[in-house]
Structure formats: C-alpha cells, structure tokens
Amino acid sequence: MDLGIKGKRGLVCAASKGLGRGCAEALAEAGVDLVINSRTDADITRTAEEIAAKYGANVTPVAADITTEEGRAKVLAELGEADILVTNAGGPPPGMWTDWSRDDFIKAIDANMLTAVALMQALVPGMMDRGWGRVVNITSQSVRSPVSVLGLSNTARTGLTGFVAGMSRQVAGKGVCVNNILPGIHATDRAVSLDGNVSKNEGITPEEARKRREATIPTGTYGQADDFGAACAFLCSQQARFIVGQNLLLDGGALNATL
Ligand code: NAP
C-alpha cells in the first residue's frame, strides 16, 4: 500500500534499536526523510547508516538525551520543522510502590510524559500552519492494564494519554492526527531486561521467565519491532486522516477485554 507520505519530514525519538528503530525503518521505507535520535552516538550513527542504505532514505542521526531540555533543543535544531513526530524514550525501572520517592516520580513523568508533551508543543503548531501532520506517541499496554512492578510507567504514561485525549481533538481540524500506540511485550532489549528481572525475583532462568511471559499472550509469542513499525507508519499515512486520539493496543491479545 502506498502510504502517501513520500518526501515528508519526520522525527523518530529513541530509535537506535527496538520499537523506535522499527518505526524509523517503516517510515524510511515509505519514503519519509528522517531525523532519528538516541543517546549513544556510535549506535544512532550506525543505525542511520544502515536504514539509509537499506531504503535509499535520507536519515540524519542526532545523539542526545531526549528527556532533557538541552537534548531536545539539539534534536529540534537539526530537525527544523517536521510533518511526522514519533515520541519515545526509555522506560522507567521496575520496583515496589512503597519505595519510589518524589524525585523518582518526577524523573519518570519528565521522561515518559512531559518529553512527549514538549515535542508536540514544539512541532505541532507548524504542522497546523501547514495543514498536515501526524504524531504517534509510543506509550505502553500499562495504560490499559497496569503492570504492578512498573508503577512509575503506569503513572507517567496515563498522564500522557489524558493529555493526548484532549489535545488531539483541538488540532484535528488543522489536519493533524495525534494517536498513541500501546506496546504489549515485544522482543527488544527492554523485554530481555524485564525477563531478567522476573528471573531474579522468581529464581528461574531468563528462558523460563520468557516462556512464562509468552504463555500470557494468546499469540504465544512476543511482538516484533518491524510489525510495530508498520502499524506506526500506517498511523502516519494519508489514509489515517480519520484516526484521532486513539490508543492502539499491540499486545497479541494479552488484554482480556471485550473493548
Ligand atoms: P529498547 O529496545 O531498550 O530501546 C530503547 C531505545 O531508546 C534505544 O535506542 C535507546 O538508545 C533509546 N533511548 C533510551 N533512553 C533514551 C533517552 N533518554 N533519549 C534518547 N534515546 C533514548 O526499548 P523498547 O523495547 O524499544 O521500548 C521503547 C519504549 O516502549 C520504552 O519506553 C518501553 O518502556 C516501552 N515499552 C516497551 C515494551 C516492550 O515489550 N519492548 C512494552 C511496553 C512498553 P540509548 O540507550 O543509546 O539512548
């Protein structure tokens, strides 16, 4: 399917690997000129080179911590304006609800809520002026169904979801569609790290931890970053113009709910 976005300009945050990279690859394949970001210079540079070579795309890497004001300023200076924004950042650490301090909450809210808000505030006005834009925020299944050990994530991402619910309706009339994608468990480094956490807490091997987590998913497998990216690219397409303020859960059916 031609997504109709060839030649658009896009930013994908936290994209040297995992879900962000999956999104960057799918957008590059659709012909979008990209700025991609993550903190480690060598990794983001290599990823940009690989994606550019694979799809013949223009891909500019920017090494920066997207959760800081300085990091965002560096990325935005390289980017200029954008038609497409995919927000993403590393997830907060797991833990016990009794242990988190105010600072822990502020850090999580900064990274997984206010960073996305700041990027939308920086880029969506230009999209509205030009009459076209797409934003996809990578959030988490924890917005629909809390993951108890990820209370910091549950909290911050639910805040972002509430913000998007209202804001997306305020900008849709100018041709800008803002939506969220909620990943369930995907086979990325983040999943490996959470498997490690389960393995440590339950005294089982990481392989057993993965098997147990896979058994909670009706598909019986973890999701793949390239499938995730394809869904993201569709939400950034011309054809997605009537999809506004939605939360697309990609979890292999793990959430047992009718709606
Ligand atoms: P991942 O495989 O660990 O990749 C994370 C990417 O983000 C890397 O490119 C990393 O590169 C970059 N990054 C991390 N912190 C950053 C920062 N502050 N500034 C810029 N780049 C940063 O993670 P993932 O699985 O793709 O997860 C992406 C997001 O989805 C996370 O928020 C995660 O919590 C959420 N999520 C994932 C799953 C899952 O099963 N995979 C499920 C639900 C939610 P550097 O380290 O070099 O910066």
From TrEMBL:
Keywords: Plasmid. The keyword Aminoacyl-tRNA synthetase does not apply. InterPro entries: NAD(P)-bd_dom_sf (IPR036291), SDR (IPR050259), SDR_fam (IPR002347). The keyword Chloroplast does not apply. Belongs to the short-chain dehydrogenases/reductases (SDR) family. PANTHER family: 3-OXOACYL-(ACYL-CARRIER-PROTEIN) REDUCTASE, NADPH-DEPENDENT REDUCTASE BACG. This is SDR family oxidoreductase. The lineage of its organism: Bacteria, Pseudomonadati, Pseudomonadota, Alphaproteobacteria, Rhodobacterales.
